[in-house]
Amino acid sequence: MDFELTEELKMLKEMAYKFAKAEFPAVSREFDEHEKYPAELRKKAAENGLVGAWIPEEYGGAGAGILGNTIITEELSKVDMGIGLCIVAATFGSESIFQYGSEEQKKTYLPPICAGDRVCAGAFTEPNAGTDVAGYKTRAVKDGGDYVINGNKMFITNGTICDFMVAQCITNPEEKKHNSFSLIIVPADAAGVTKNKIHGKLGIRASDTAEIAFEDVRVPQSNLVGKEGQGFRELMHFFDTTRVMVSGQALGISEACLETSIKYVKERTAFGAPLGSFQMSQMKLTEMAIRIEALRGLVYKAAWLIDAGRPDYHLAAMAKFFGGQTAVFCANYAVELHGGYGYIDEYDVQKWYRDAKILELYEGTKEAEIMTIGRTLQAKY
Ligand SMILES: Cc1cc2nc3c(=O)[nH]c(=O)nc-3n(C[C@H](O)[C@H](O)[C@H](O)COP(=O)(O)OP(=O)(O)OC[C@H]3O[C@@H](n4cnc5c(N)ncnc54)[C@H](O)[C@@H]3O)c2cc1C
Question: For ligand 1, atom 16, which residue shows the shortest CA distance?
Fold first, then answer.
């Protein structure tokens, strides 16, 4: 057993952090305040091999695997989780193309994302069904050689800036719920697609989030990803990978909270002594550090297992659940350790506190993760 990262992964980690440190701070606050999407930064990140790094080289990626990509996500999130998300989630949705798509689909859709020229979106959630994945209503009806799609999608990351999306649609309504869905590629500029940006998010405000409507949208049947009627299972498998990457965000932002807090308690004094000399401060830092160490083990192992061809959906859900909890926990303590200064935008912890909460909501709420683990845990032992 070896807990050391390989030399390649260490270099990747260092490079990703250096990139974020050099590029993000100058624009971080502006992009957060004005909900600006960092298109140029995404392109620059792509030139450095940071977009779609998990994608094998034959499809334009860096071939860094899920562990490599998770480490990139961690490092970018240490500096600005919102901007980092815009970079690593340019591939969001395309994981299913890689997992289930035809060779032609992989060759068409994956390389331009890695090059920073195209962005994908995963359009699953609907206004009336999020956690209840089998409750989606969007329909795709066969007509000639096409599917005609009608329905609404909600909270779609990259919604207004994407070039194409992978949408979950009902194609086989006569089948039982879980056998009725299919994943279909929809070009963002297809006639009948309407996109409305959602404003006023609590955090990750650089990230683009939108409501999408499909009204008689026609796409060729060759845009089907995987097998008709298997979309539900394919989406669950998709989450096994993307949840691990999201837990990388949690790891990065938690580490940032700890490191920044340590620096602050060494500098700030009260009652004639540094804050860090008080046991109550030490307790907070210690609790953060313990959680971060535990999270790192969970996240890296879950990612490593995917690369080893043995994805473990329990571990993925655990990493995502514990990641969200750790990030919110660490951001809360970071604000507290900064006192009143933590509550204003003079320090980054105020933003991180807002950013962290999404990690308990998207890619499955913390309750959804518990359901995923709880349903089958007893059968495992
Ligand atoms: C910024 C942002 C970006 C997002 N990006 C995307 C994206 O790119 N693509 C996409 O498809 N979706 C995306 N989402 C949607 C996100 O995944 C959903 O919001 C999330 O899954 C929850 O669904 P919901 O909002 O409909 O809440 P609901 O499903 O209505 O849940 C509300 C509450 O009830 C709880 N709950 C629901 N069912 C149960 C149950 N059986 N037992 C116990 N508790 C339950 C939930 O855990 C939650 O606390 C994004 C959301 C946000 C906010």
Answer: 362
Q: Residue 376: its pLDDT value, please?
A: 83
Residue 221's pLDDT is: 98
Distance 365 CA to ligand 1 centre (A): 6
Residue 159 CA: which ligand 1 atom is closest?
8
Q: Which of 155, 156, 245, 369 to mutate to test the pocket of ligand 1 (most atoms within 8 A of CB)?
A: 155
Distant-in-sequence, close-in-space partners of 69: CB < 8 Å, separation ≥ 6: 53, 54, 88, 245, 248, 303
CA 295 – CA 265 distance, rounded (Å): 24
Please check whether residue 235 is in contact with residue 181, taking contact to mean a CB–CB distance below 8 angstroms.
Answer: yes
Convert the pLDDT of each residue in 330-342 to its tens digit: 999 999 999 999 9
- DSSP β-ladder status, 139-143 and 120-123: unpaired
Q: Does residue 381 carry a pLDDT above 90? A: no
Q: Which atom of ligand 1 is nearest to the CA of 121?
A: 8
* Nearest CA among 274, 253, 275 for reference residue 329: 253
Three-state SS at 193: strand
* 295-332 pLDDT tens trace: 999 999 999 999 999 999 999 999 999 999 999 999 99
**Residue 7 among the catalytic residues:** no
Ligand 1 atom with least separation from CA of 89: 8
- Closest-CA residue, ligand 1 atom 43, reads 367
Active-site residue, selected from the candidate residues 126, 363, 367, 369: 363
- B/e letters for 245-280, b = 16+ CB within 10 Å, e = fewer, are bbbbbbbbbbbbbbebbbebbeeeeeeeeebbeeee
What is the pLDDT at residue 305?
97
Among protein residues, the one whose CA lies closest to atom 23 of ligand 1: 130
Separate counts of helices (H) and strands (E) for the chain: 12, 10
The dihedral region occupied by 60, where left means phi > 0, alpha psi between -120 and 50, and beta the remainder, is left
Distance 274 CA to ligand 1 centre (A): 42
Domains of the chain: 7-114 (1.10.540.10), 120-227 (2.40.110.10), 233-380 (1.20.140.10)
The rounded mean pLDDT for the chain is 97
What pLDDT shows up at residue 1? Answer: 86
